[in-house]
Structure formats: structure tokens, C-alpha cells
Specification:
By secondary structure, this protein is α+β, with helices and mostly antiparallel strands. The chain contains 14 helices and 32 strands. Helices cover 22% and strands 23% of the residues. Bound molecules: calcium ion. Calcium ion (CA) binds next to strand 12.
Length: 640
């Protein structure tokens, strides 16, 4: 099946612009005829001319147009089986409103000042990263952000924005957390928002790709002129880089918005999608799945991520439903991206949304992570172990009253690797047990854009809990994330109890709910300052301790030792780190417990109750009282 058509291996697919001429090349081996329509604008009745393309090598069609064609809009008219369809260029780098027509672009003219010198942070390992998931829209849409360009790329470039109490918001706020990277929710051009009607109160997360290589138009100040969204996206990336923060893109190559209107289907019918007989396979649960194992689809995905890394200086990629994509494609992606940026982060969801025709052993699923190098996967084990299963509203986890979860938490603390003190017989969440070969394979988190926010999950599972009790659970959740081996990740606003109230309850899937449900309410920053500072403190502490950021299984097994506990719902461990030892203990009990220290030395406390950071809070010796639902972190210098 994959040998049906000769692939085209050149690097000039789409349009290649110079001031003197522009070339156009489309891979369309099944087409009987291909023409190009040139338009004055990205929409409306403004056809300039229709020009036939010449059949060229390896299933491609080619046209060279002389002169400076920058800002000329175009589409292809592709005839297959006697039916002609108009489509934008799959390799389009710029487009008009709603991505219907592609645009010839002089990319250098879209570079903001100084972009040639722009670059992201350099991290030795993914375990050194601290990733915060943000949405361009959500971060500045609310009036409380105090930002001028609300919900836009430019909104995230604004310095000095603050809420009504003078607390920094937007970019300054993200910087204040100490995170190393932000992960942008879909910001390529997606289909679910009509860009021509900015006044309409539309909202969508954007997991419905239309143009993979072009920024979304509704986040720009002018979606009608193709160069504007490109420049503004670059300005945003540059603004983050200026603060030392890397930018990771959430990429959704597993499916497209629909089949019939997709540029893939219109150029080569039924090539880019996996088929199950005459039906379309649907491992994305969105109506289709992309055939990443087909040579030209694989090439497309690889070319696309390379383009974002090179042209937009993107520092990492988070693959949505990565378990739909095949292992070989992911391996090649990693290898190609590393050539561009050795510090690049690649990780994704190691699962699919439904069954696929491609066998499990060929797909980038969690159980196959050992067959990949340098590609992390989200630990749903940790997410659900901390606070209860996401699909069962009343399911409890370690922090909110779940029982017999100690082993699950140990599993997560070691980064889902094989460790002699974790009981894999008892571990049921992932039947394969230790799925990671080392902590670099693991992304640790409690909440993301999907499902209930952490705060809402705690509210719903513990309706009788006081605010102080809920805060304690939230803190313990954060403490587990930031003291576990792997790469920590959290949803923006989790650190100030982000909530999505909707219809007398809380939304567990707000993808198309009004922006008011989704946006960050910075006024909450004042109400939850202590919680926010606790996150900051944990992040700062983590950055100071390589013992929390180990890279290999051997290191973790040698240096991390759990201490036996008599009480239930307590997990304690010691990490050897150069000249220091770190002692961490989580108490999920609703009452205080007494915990023995690892030895009879004096230990300096860095986290206790509602406080965490890099300054010593006190000293303890022999044993200590641990507050209900809390984490204690203490260190001591080892004298030989
Ligand atoms: Ca769009």
C-alpha cells in the first residue's frame, strides 16, 4: 500500500519565493490535471488568472512564475477521477483569512527586529525543564489581565501588564513562576473559529488542524493579510526568548479537521488517511487518523516540525495523541530536530483516542517508549494516582482521600522506571508496570487543558472539605510533581486554583465553551497568593537540586531510597545528591503524623505546611511532626 505512488523527496514542495521568481510544486500523483489560481486577496471575488501546471518528476506538478510575487494569493485546482476541487497548498507558509487560500510570502520580511539573533534556552536534559501549559487566548483574554492586545499573540509580548491590585500578569507573570518553557495550546491554523468574524464570541481550543505550517489567524490582529500572523507569532516567540523561556508547540498531526475539505484529500484522495477497508480508521476519535506511516505523510510531518523549529525558533513539540503516529516517524522527527537544535524537547500523549488499523507494536504508545530515544510521554499514571481517575468524577487519588495509593505514588516518584522498592505486582494502572527506561521518558503532571482542573476535581471529590483543606491537597499534588523524577508539567493557573465553573458545576471539557469559562482570572492571584508562592518555591528548589532531576535509571536506583513507613498514606524517601541528601515525605492523612528522619543528624527544612523554597525554614532532628495533608522537604550536608 505504501508503495502505491513514487514519493517526492525534494525540499521544494509548496512555493519557494525569491524576489526574481517563485516556484510552485505540488505532489499529486493521482491527478489528471492541476492548475493554479492566482488571487489578489485571501478572500472575495478577485481571481487574477488560472494557469496550468506541468506534470513533473515523481508525481509532482510544477510551475515557475517570474517577478516578485510576494503577497500574491493562490490555490490549486486538482482534478482526480474527473472531479475538480480547489484547495489551498498543503505546504503553504502563509494564507488569507480562514486559511482558504495560500499566499506567497517573503519570510524575511516577517522577521521582527533582532530575530536573526533570537534563540531559546539551552537545557542539558528534559528533566531540567519546567513546563507550563498555556493558551494564547486564555492567558490574556480576561479583563483582569490588564493587557492591551487581549487574547492575541501580541498580548503575550506586553511587559508591565498587571491586575487591578498591581500584580504582574501575562508574560511577566509567567516569568515570575520560574518555568523554563511554555507549551502553547494549538496555535497553527485551525478550522473551528471563523477568523472573519472577530466580533462574534467564538471560542475553541483548536484541535482541528487546517494549515499545519501557518499560525492561527484569530490570534493575530489582522487575519486577512497573510504576513501579519507570521510576524506576530514570531514577536511572541521572541518575547518569551527574551525572558529566557522556551516555547513548545502542541501539534496535532494525528488527524485533520475533516476529510473531504482537507488539502490532503483534495490533492491525493485516500492517501494521507488510514483506511479500514472502505471506511476511515479513527484512532483520533475525531473522524479520521493520519497515515503517518505513508512515506509522503511521514515526510510532511517531519518537514512541518523542522519548519517550525527553523523558521519560528520553536524549542519543542508536544504531540497530541502521539500513539496514533508510528514509531519510525517519531524516531526520524527526533533525529531531524536534533540537527537543528540539540536542546529541543519532544514528548507527547502515549495513547490514542480509539482503535487503529496500525498494530500497537508499530505505534508511539507508552508501552513502546523504550523503543524511542529522547521522546517523553505523559504519565497518566501520576495524573490519576495523585487525584483520582479523570474519567470517573468521584474517583479519589492519594491527595484527596484515596486509600492504598502509596505504591502508585512510589511508582511515579521514581519516574515510572523499574525500582526495587516499587511493587509492580500490585500496580494495576499500566499493566506493563515500569514503562519508562529512564526519567527522561516521563512527563509528570496532575492536570492539563483536558478534564477537570485540579482545583475543580478536588472540589467535586471532596464537597465537604474546607478551603484550607483543599489548598493543602493542591499543595501536596504540586509537591509530588516537583519532587518526582521526570519532567514536571502543569496547566497554567493550577498554581492559583484555576477553576472552570459552568452550568452549576465545573467543566471537564471546555474546548468550545465561552472564553469566560476558559480564560485565566488574574484577580484570583490575590486570593491564592500563598498557593502560587508555594509553586514558585518548589520550582526554585527543584532547580537547585540535581537529585530531583536524575537522568538514568541507574542513577535513580542507586540514589533514591524509600524509607519504610508504619502509617498508611505516607510516602518517604531520601535522595543522595553529591555532598547533600534530600529527604522528602508526603503525608496524605487528614491528621498529623510523626515521621522518623533517615538518621540522627540535623536536617534543614525547605518545605513544610504552606511554605516551600530555597531558604531554610527551620531545623529538625531524629523525628518530626508532619502536618495533615502536607509535604516536608529537608536537606543535610553529608560529612564523610
Ligand atoms: Ca484558522
Amino acid at each position: 500500500m505504501s508503495d502505491r505512488y513514487t514519493p517526492y523527496l525534494g525540499n521544494d514542495l509548496g512555493c519557494v519565493y525569491t524576489e526574481k521568481k517563485t516556484t510552485f510544486r505540488l505532489w499529486a500523483p493521482t491527478a489528471e490535471k492541476v492548475e493554479i489560481c492566482f488571487y489578489k486577496n485571501g478572500d472575495g471575488d478577485c481571481l487574477l488568472e488560472t494557469v496550468p501546471m506541468e506534470k513533473d518528476v515523481e508525481g509532482t506538478w510544477f510551475l515557475e512564475k517570474s517577478g516578485d510575487n510576494a503577497r500574491l494569493y493562490y490555490t490549486y485546482l486538482v482534478t482526480q477521477e474527473g472531479i475538480t476541487k480547489e484547495t489551498q497548498d498543503p505546504y503553504g507558509k502563509a494564507c488569507g483569512v480562514n486559511g482558504v487560500r495560500s499566499m506567497v510570502v517573503s519570510l524575511r520580511s516577517t522577521d521582527p527586529k533582532g530575530f536573526d539573533k533570537d534563540c531559546g534556552p539551552k537545557l542539558y536534559s528534559p528533566t531540567d525543564a519546567v513546563v507550563c501549559e498555556i493558551s494564547v487566548r486564555d492567558m490574556t483574554a480576561d479583563v483582569s489581565s490588564g493587557v492591551r492586545f487581549k487574547g492575541k499573540y501580541l498580548g503575550l509580548t506586553e511587559k508591565g501588564a498587571m491586575n487591578i491590585n498591581g500584580v504582574p500578569t501575562g508574560l511577566d507573570y509567567i516569568k515570575s513562576l520560574g518555568v523554563t518553557h511554555v507549551q502553547l495550546m494549538p496555535s497553527y491554523d485551525f478550522g473551528s473559529i471563523d477568523e472573519s468574524r472577530p466580533e462574534a464570541n467564538q471560542y475553541n481550543w483548536g484541535y482541528d488542524p487546517v494549515n499545519y505550517n501557518i499560525p492561527e489567524g484569530s490570534y493575530s490582529t489582522d487575519p486577512f493579510h497573510g504576513e501579519v500572523r507570521i510576524k506576530e507569532f514570531k514577536q511572541m516567540v521572541q518575547a518569551f526568548h527574551n525572558e529566557g523561556i522556551g516555547v513548545i508547540m502542541d501539534v496535532v498531526y494525528n488527524h485533520t479537521y475533516d476529510i473531504d475539505n482537507s488539502c490532503f484529500q483534495k490533492t491525493v484522495k485516500d492517501y494521507y488517511y488510514r483506511m479500514d477497508g472502505k471506511k476511515y480508521s479513527d484512532a483520533s476519535a475525531c473522524g479520521n487518523e493520519v497515515a503517518s506511516d505513508q512515506p509522503m505523510m511521514r515526510k510532511y510531518i517531519i518537514d512541518s516540525v523542522k519548519y517550525w523549529a527553523e523558521e519560528y525558533h520553536i524549542d519543542g513539540f508536544r504531540f497530541d495523541l502521539m500513539g496514533v503516529l508510528d514509531l519510525e516517524t517519531m524516531r526520524q522527527i527526533r533525529a531531524e530536530l536534533e540537527k537543528i537544535n540539540p536542546y529541543i524537547l519532544v514528548y507527547g500523549e502515549g495513547w490514542a483516542g480509539g482503535p487503529s488499523v496500525l498494530p500497537e507494536e508499530e505505534r508511539a504508545l507508552k508501552v513502546n517508549v523504550s523503543q524511542l530515544q529522547g521522546i517523553g510521554m505523559f504519565s497518566d499514571d501520576m495524573r490519576d494516582g495523585i487525584k483520582g481517575h479523570v474519567f470517573t468524577e468521584d474517583a479519589l487519588g492519594f491527595v484527596n482521600g484515596g486509600q492504598d495509593m502509596e505504591n502508585d505514588i512510589r511508582f511515579s516518584v521514581v519516574g515510572a522506571i523499574e525500582h526495587p522498592q516499587v511493587d509492580y505486582e500490585k500496580y494495576e494502572y499500566t499493566p506493563e508496570g515500569a514503562w519508562a527506561k529512564d526519567p527522561r521518558d516521563v512527563v509528570n503532571y496532575a492536570s492539563c487543558h483536558d478534564n477537570l482542573t485540579l482545583w475543580d476535581k478536588l472540589l467535586l471529590t471532596c464537597p465537604k472539605a474546607s478551603r484550607a483543606e483543599l489548598l493543602a491537597m493542591n499543595r501536596l499534588s504540586a509537591a509530588i510533581i516537583f519532587t518526582s523524577q521526570g519532567m514536571p508539567f502543569f496547566l497554567s493557573g493550577e498554581e492559583f486554583a484555576r477553576s472552570k465553573p459552568y452550568k452549576n458545576s465545573y467543566s471537564e471539557n471546555s474546548y468550545n465553551l465561552p472564553v469566560e469559562v476558559n480564560s485565566l482570572k488574574y484577580d484570583r492571584l490575590s486570593d491564592f497568593k500563598e498557593l502560587c508562592d508555594y509553586y514558585r518555591g518548589l520550582i526554585a528548589f527543584r532547580k537547585e537540586h540535581i537529585g530531583l532531576r536524575m537522568n538514568t535509571k541507574t542513577e535513580v536506583v542507586e540514589n533514591l531510597r524509600f524509607l519504610p513507613q508504619e502509617q498508611k498514606n505516607v510516602v518517604a524517601f531520601v535522595i543522595k545528591e553529591r555532598q547533600e541528601e534530600i529527604f522528602v515525605v508526603y503525608n496524605a492523612n487528614p491528621e498529623q503524623v510523626t515521621v522518623s528522619l533517615p538518621d540522627d543528624n540535623t536536617w534543614q527544612v525547605y518545605a513544610e505546611g504552606s511554605k516551600a523554597g530555597t531558604t531554610v525554614l527551620g531545623e529538625i532532628k531524629n523525628q518530626t511532626e508532619l502536618m495533615k495533608v502536607s509535604c516536608l522537604i529537608a536537606c543535610r550536608v553529608v560529612t564523610q
